Amino acid sequence: MKKILFASSAIVAVAFAGQASASEPIKLSVGGYMEQWAGFADEDNTATGGRKNAFQSDTEVYFTGSTTLDNGIEIGARIELEGETSTDQVDEQFLFVNGGFGRIEMGKNDSVADSMGVTGPTVGPVNPNDGGTEDWVNLAKVIDTVPSSGDQNRVSYFTPNFGGFQAGVSFADNSESNGRVNVVTTAGSQSILGSDTSGNGDNIVSGAIAYSNDFDGFSLGLSVEGENEDEDNWYGAGVNVGFGNFTVGGSYGHVDNDGEEDVDAFDLGVTYAMDAASIGLSYAYQDDEEDNVENQGLSLGLAYTLGAGVSWQSSVFWFDEDAAGSASDNDGYGVVTGLALSF
After folding, report:
1. Assign residue 221 a region: left if phi > 0, alpha if psi is -120 to 50, beta otherwise?
2. What range defines the domain where residue 294 resides?
3. Among the listed residues 198, 97, 211, the one whose alpha carbon sits nearest the alpha carbon of residue 156
4. What percentage of residues in the chain have a pLDDT greater than 70?
5. pTM assigned to the model
6. What percentage of the chain has pLDDT greater than the value 90?
7. What is d(CA 88, CA 79) in angstroms, rounded to the nearest whole number?
8. DSSP label at 138?
9. Cβ within 8 Å of residue 197, ≥6 positions away
10. Of 1, 147, 256, 302, which is the most exposed, with the fewest CB atoms less than 10 Å away?
């Protein structure tokens, strides 16, 4: 692996060698989003007594910028800042290199398996497949058909798009040695202990192949993705088909926990878009044999574009979770509405 990385670095260095400084300096632009939600949830959790929520929010500001060298290669950076957090203020930060050879990303970012994975179509702020149900109710496990390793310090490569086909591969070491701050709260005060080195250092290798294309009267999106960390593996696949104003699709994910009990999950969804409005129905199911948790969820969502970058969204959701021991079982429903702003 070291020889491969060294050779790749040498190739990149030769490509950049001798470049004049005629390119424009990198100037950062600002973007981001803000989501503010109001709602309620009713659940039957005898272990915790239930939880009532009134509001949820998610805000992020990101900075992006790039420059194009004289040889046509684009180099840039992206930095994402969380609007509210108790630990990691920087969500993702990475540099990218674009050219006829494809795209290279290096920094703290999602894997290609995460970014290229296709899941069932959804509408609204709450969806059963890793879509915010856990923000409103108590769940022992979150349904997730793309259970990737999340933000890690990694390098990723994406091939050029060939007739709708694209492939990617990522490598990380799960060190978490930078980009994270370990904060401990004691007696109402916070003690910053420095870098969190809780990662185990195991290599994380991710891969994905995706296809996306529009035809006469319909569109098609496909993905096959997977990830390996030490002896643990997960893999999945997804498909979306669009025709007229409808989009239907789903995805499947399987986790192989080093000879222990496995996890299987799938989701299904259908959406209908009409002018500024869209509506969607989504269902997801997961059987976690390792922790003996079986859960499922259903959501009906509505979104209406009020103006440029302003969307009113609502969800009505239901869930049912059967965990080990009757005291841990939980089921219920909720209603959420609010505004999503993008800028």
Report:
1. beta
2. 26-183+192-342
3. 97
4. 80
5. 0.84
6. 63
7. 13
8. -
9. 175, 176, 177
10. 1
